């Protein structure tokens, strides 16, 4: 510290000139959170490509069946196994149905299943994991043992059992079947994150300010683990699509003549040796959608973190 | 001095650190029977080495941790077990400034949102416009610019972030603030700025501080009275000049002999008391006087009995040396 004998008097100091008063000004213009996030997202070219492709896929799913002159179950036995042509862009299948329309129709079902399963997982997983992590102790112990029980059984078993019960509505059955187990991973992830974050001083500060538990949990803790959550949600969409594709592929998914990408791939597989081109369309749709979702997830994870410029 | 604002009596905060179901119960006695009083408009400095329980004490007072035993009185009212509306009222009046300005601000919120939050929680002002005006006013008070309102914390330096933290606590117009090592994470030049800001706020708003730190000279500078802690106990309490220039307790003497002196001539003549051994674990503290294992003046009595506070002039010392 300073020597006791040195006396500081006011005339030893001079006033800061006005010109230097703005030294602490930050020159960059302030933006809102979403503008900022969008700017960061745009810088990631792969994520942008992914977003463009996903948009095209969604438009294709919505508009494809409307604009096309064919319907997904309209058969034409004179035109079986056509190669791609001006009339049938992707060719036709074994009943002469237009594959372009069927893939678009499959996109509707597959994307709907993927997004709704992810949304349900997100909701349940965040709430459950957040509560377990925030309250800790006995609450956490009980909640996580329940998670362990669900986790210990193969999820295909649930899906198949639920399919049997809700057999007449396979679309709903698949969404419930996938959601009933997949939220477990999300819950675990959120719980770990919340447990570390709740010890941090900003969360203690909110507590001392008198914030309610709900406010601390949602406004302070969960928003801070949004990055990894978003990434795992975008990975969950393709995983749900894939589970549905698998179920349809083994024959317990969407019923014919309805089509999902999985059933389309399965039908085409049976004639793979003679008409290989028919498998390409649904497979390409699945692969490209998953790839673009992965890119988007990656980009969003970075974009939502204001620290990354 | 004037009326008392905070009175702590025999406060104990223990933590259960038992691992597994079957192992022996292990308890950390972080704060073990501490009593002191803080008066209105006063700054009470709390010093001690790391791990002595001073932060735990601060956090118990603002009710982040529940005390295991003892009593906390705030403005003559027992607040040890309050809940609900009473607790909310208490939170409005007693605030805390945290140690690490990089961890104490939510990085997903703008400065405006951070400072507005306490007003939203306690429903101060009705419109967001009024709140925004107050935020600008507060930013001005702590020496930041009103147009920083839409910035994110990571755009600021450590000192500026600490100012944001101070503005957040001031939003509630508190009467008492616990400063938990508010300057130890900052650079020396910035430390002085923040200390001056805290002093200015105290003068203008009549706030009392509990100032926790491990830098004795800084604590002496800002505090009216100082309390010295060792292993969960308060060993000496007194006016800051007295404690600083004429320490009584053997631990305070050792602590002060370690303060560096800027004058090399003086430094040579100064005798440094080097303590033997390590800080004992608070899970299994020594019997009797906590300091006896490292104390140069320890006697047999120190192992058997725990020394109470002895009044020496304006000071209180927990040591048998000063008993008559």
UniProtKB/TrEMBL annotation, chain B:
Residues 6-256 form the ABC transporter domain. CDD domains: ABC_NikE_OppD_transporters. One of its GO terms (biological process) is peptide transport. One of its GO terms (molecular function) is ATP hydrolysis activity. Gene3D superfamilies: P-loop containing nucleotide triphosphate hydrolases. It comes from the Bacteria. Keywords: ATP-binding, Nucleotide-binding, Transport. PANTHER family: D,D-DIPEPTIDE TRANSPORT ATP-BINDING PROTEIN DDPF-RELATED, TRANSPORT ATP-BINDING PROTEIN. Belongs to the ABC transporter superfamily. This is Dipeptide ABC transporter ATP-binding protein. It comes from Copranaerobaculum intestinale.
């Amino acid at each position: 510290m300073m020597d006791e004998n040195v006396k500081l008097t006011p005339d030893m100091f001079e006033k800061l000139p006005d010109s230097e008063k703005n030294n602490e000004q930050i020159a960059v213009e302030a933006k809102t959170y979403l503008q900022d996030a969008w700017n960061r997202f745009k810088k990631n070219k792969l994520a942008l490509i992914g977003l463009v492709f996903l948009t095209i896929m969604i438009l294709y799913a919505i508009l494809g069946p409307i604009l096309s002159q064919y319907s997904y179950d309209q058969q034409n036995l004179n035109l079986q196994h056509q190669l791609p042509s001006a009339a049938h862009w992707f060719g036709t299948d074994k009943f002469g149905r237009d594959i372009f329309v069927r893939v678009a129709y499959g996109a509707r079902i597959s994307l709907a299943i993927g997004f709704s399963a992810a949304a349900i997982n997100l909701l349940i997983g965040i709430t459950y994991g957040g509560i377990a992590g925030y309250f800790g102790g006995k609450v956490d112990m009980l909640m996580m043992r329940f998670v362990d029980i669900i986790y210990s059984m193969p999820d295909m078993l649930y899906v198949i059992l639920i399919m049997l019960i809700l057999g007449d509505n396979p679309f709903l059955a698949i969404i419930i079947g996938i959601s009933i187990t997949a939220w477990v991973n999300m819950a675990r992830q959120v719980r770990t994150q919340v447990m570390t974050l709740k010890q941090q001083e900003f969360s203690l500060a909110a507590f001392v300010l008198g914030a309610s538990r709900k406010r601390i949990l949602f406004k302070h803790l969960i928003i801070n683990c949004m990055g990894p959550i978003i990434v795992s949600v975008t990975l969950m969409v393709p995983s749900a699509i894939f589970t549905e594709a698998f179920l349809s592929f083994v024959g317990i998914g969407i019923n014919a003549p309805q089509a999902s990408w999985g059933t389309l791939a399965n039908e085409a597989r049976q004639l793979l040796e003679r008409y290989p081109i028919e498998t390409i369309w649904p497979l390409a749709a699945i692969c490209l959608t998953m790839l673009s979702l992965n890119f988007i997830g990656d980009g969003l994870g970075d974009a939502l973190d204001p620290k990354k410029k | 001095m004037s009326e008392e604002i905070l009175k702590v009596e025999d406060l104990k905060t223990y933590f259960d650190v038992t691992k597994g179901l079957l192992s022996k119960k292990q308890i950390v006695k972080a704060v073990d029977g501490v009593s002191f009083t803080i008066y209105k408009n006063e700054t009470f400095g709390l010093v001690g080495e790391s791990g002595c329980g001073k932060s735990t004490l601060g956090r118990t007072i603002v009710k982040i941790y529940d005390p295991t035993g003892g009593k906390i009185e705030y403005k003559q009212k027992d607040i040890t077990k309050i809940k609900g509306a009473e607790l909310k009222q208490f939170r409005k009046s007693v605030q805390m400034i945290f140690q690490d300005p990089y961890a104490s601000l939510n990085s997903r919120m703008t400065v405006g949102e951070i400072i507005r939050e306490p007003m939203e929680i306690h429903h101060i002002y009705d419109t967001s416009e009024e709140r925004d005006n107050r935020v600008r006013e507060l930013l001005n008070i702590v020496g930041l610019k009103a147009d920083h309102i839409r910035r994110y914390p990571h755009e600021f330096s450590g000192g500026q972030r600490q100012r944001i933290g101070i503005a957040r606590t001031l939003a509630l117009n508190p009467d008492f603030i616990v400063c938990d090592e508010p300057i130890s994470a900052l650079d020396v030049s910035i430390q002085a700025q923040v200390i001056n800001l805290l002093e200015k706020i105290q003068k203008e708003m009549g706030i009392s501080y509990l100032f926790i730190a491990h830098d004795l000279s800084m604590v002496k500078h800002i505090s009216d009275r100082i309390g010295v802690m060792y292993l969960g106990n308060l060993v000496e309490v007194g006016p800051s000049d007295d404690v600083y220039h004429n320490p009584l307790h053997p631990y305070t003497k050792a602590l002060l002999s370690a303060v560096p002196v800027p004058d090399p001539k003086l430094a040579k003549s100064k005798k440094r008391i080097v303590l033997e051994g390590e800080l004992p674990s608070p899970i299994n503290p020594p019997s009797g006087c906590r300091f006896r294992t490292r104390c140069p003046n320890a006697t047999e009595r120190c192992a058997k009995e725990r020394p109470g506070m002895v009044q020496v002039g304006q000071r209180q010392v927990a040591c048998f040396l000063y008993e008559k």
